[in-house]
Amino acid sequence: MSGFAEDDVRRAADIREWLMKQIADKQEELERLRNTLAVVDSILKQGSFRAAATLAPEPKLAPAKQAMAMSPPPPAKQSSFEVGKDVRQLKRAKDEFLLANAEVTPNSVIITPVVNLSSNTPPFKSFFLSRILDGMKAKDAEKGVSDALSYSVDESNGQIKRITISNYRDKERLGEIFNTSTWVFTRMLEKSA
Q1: CA atoms within 13 A on the CB side of 69
Q2: Where are the domains positioned within the chain?
Q3: DSSP 29
C-alpha cells in the first residue's frame, strides 16, 4: 500500500483531469492562432506586399514638395482577391492536410470539402452554423443591412458537398469564415475518425 491517503489520491486525480483539460484547451487555442496566422499570411501574399529591405530609401524633398507628399494617397486598387474568382485551400494547421477548397467572388464564397464530413458531426451545426454564420446574420439584421449575410448547405446522403455564403461583405469576415471553417472541419474529422 502506498503512503498517500485516499483523499490525496482523489485530489491528484482531479488535478490530473483539470490539467488534461487545460492542455486540450491550449492546443485548440494554438491551432486557432495558427489558422488565423495562415489567413493573415494569405492576405499578405495576395496584396502588393514587398519586404522592407527591397524598398529604396525615400529622397529628401523640398518644403513645397513635402506638403504635397503629406496629402492623402489616391484610393488603392482592389486586390485580385476581390475581383473575379479566387480559389483558396483550407488546410489543417498541424500538417497542412487539405480539408476544403474555397472559391471566393466579390459577393460570395463557396466552400467545398474534399474530405467526407457529415453535417451531423459536431461542431458543424452547433458552432459553425448557429454561432458563427447565424451570429453574422444577426449582426447584419441589427444594423439594418439590406444585403445581409445568407448561407446554404448542400448535402448528399448526409455528407456536406458545398457551403455557399453570400454577402460576407469584407475581408475581416471572410478571414473569420476561413479560420472557423478550417477549425470546425479539423474537429469534425477528428470525431469521425
Answers
A1: 9
A2: 6-50+79-192
A3: H
